[in-house]
């Protein structure tokens, strides 16, 4: 996954894997979360949003299951571990 730096007070970077509909978000505090089932359109809208943090809080955080993960992965794969998430 390619990491895209974000100009945000909340989010530092985002990466997306279209084939799996996986969104990884790195927060300014260092935490990284993986969101599952995120449509590509939602990812594109996040990148284009005037406020990335506000878009996240409104359109991603309340809607998609997530898992807190370690450091950002450069080659995340789609497997059963990707579907084990919390909400």
Unreliable stretches covering 5 or more consecutive residues: none
On the 0-100 scale, what is the average pLDDT? 88
Oligomerization state: single chain
Largest beta sheet, briefly?
A: 5 strands, antiparallel
Terminal residue distance? 23 Å
Strand content: 25-35%
Number of helices: 2
Query: Could you give the order of strands across the largest sheet?
Result: 1-2-3-4-5
How would you classify the helix and strand content by structural class? alpha+beta
How many strand segments? Answer: 5
User: What is the H-and-E element order?
Assistant: EEEEHHE
How many discrete domains? 1
Helix content: 10-25%
Rounded radius of gyration (Å): 12 Å
Give the overall form: globular
Describe the structure.
This protein has one domain. Helix content is 21%, strand content 28%. It contains two helices and five strands. It has a five-stranded antiparallel β-sheet, covered by helices on one side. A hairpin with a 4-residue loop joins strand 3 and strand 4. The longest helix is centred in the middle third of the chain and has 9 residues. The protein starts with a strand and ends in an 18-residue tail after the last strand. The model has no long low-confidence stretch (mean pLDDT 88).
Core attributes:
87 residues; alpha+beta; five-stranded antiparallel beta sheet; 2 helices; 21% helix
Would you kindly provide a brief summary of this structure?
By secondary structure, the chain is of the alpha+beta class.
Task: Give the topology.
Layout: E1 4-5, E2 11-17, E3 22-27, E4 32-36, H1 40-48, H2 52-60, E5 66-69
Antiparallel strand pairs: 1-2, 2-3, 3-4, 4-5
